């Protein structure tokens, strides 16, 4: 094939993508609605979506949350959609309406007075109103349909309302349920909602991603996009591969630099604050107050960070290139080398280590020119998932019955302490790498 033929094919592909994009965009919109209708018509009895037991820790206040579940499955309604076949990217906004989580809470320490008027246990209902999801994904070719990678999903909502109910003794005898309400703008502003924000958004994100995956499989056909032309399909595949190759090269250089500095500076292990928990342990009808405390803990294995798939690349303008990518830490661990627990007049001590099967982060950076000076900046880096937690506890002995509570405390520490520490450290390492690497020159090397 001559150079002129190559140029003609590339120009023909450019014209074709420009022509088919509006129609494909409309097809995806209709498919998004059709998938919602399909799921509604199924009418199957679906088990409630649940969140694992967790705890909230801050300023010596500790509250346990159990039996957490969504009041109803979320339904995604399309509001807007934008497709860019040349940059292999898709952006959309959808509405989830009101999202509600219900469950049980318990707290037995004096700091409960910071939350509600009494020391108690009871029911909790958390409502997030007018929730929307802003979604940005990269597109890839898979069989004869588009699939997506590197999902960036940000949830936005109006007020957060928390209702707490607990049995309150009355003068006439017996118990009536009393209720108090708390209101906030941001989910992490209230102790009880801060404890569930990361797992809740991870659950909603997973359901939305599965919805979008089904939409793309039903709505898109690569052969239709390229009019069943083998030459155009080959040119399209080459364009997609070139985008990914350039993005992979840039991000891999950043990750190599990050891993090296983490290891050389001994920053791949971070310190966590100690935990303190007061709990009620029941045997039959008898209740015992117990105490759990640890020495300072640690987070480790940050230097195992790597990207999960190809990098998504977009060029908003001629002098700026944006990269979105998904990162994962292998065998991400938090631990406490010494804990002590006491209940029913029995004391135990030992070591606690929690290993996560999946610690996943979403990241975005951009490289460009500002007043003809090259720059590279971090646009986003946040923890998306910390799940499949496996807990190893030594030394519980006669107190082995509280292993579930200890697991919930470890999960709460992961949300409240480990996830923010991980994000801060990796953000710092990324800034250092971007300052050291000539990414503009690398990206535009001839």
UniProtKB/TrEMBL annotation:
InterPro entries: Mite_allergen_7_sf, Mite_allergen_group-7, To_sf. Pfam families: Grp7_allergen. It comes from the Eukaryota. This is Lipid-binding serum glycoprotein C-terminal domain-containing protein.
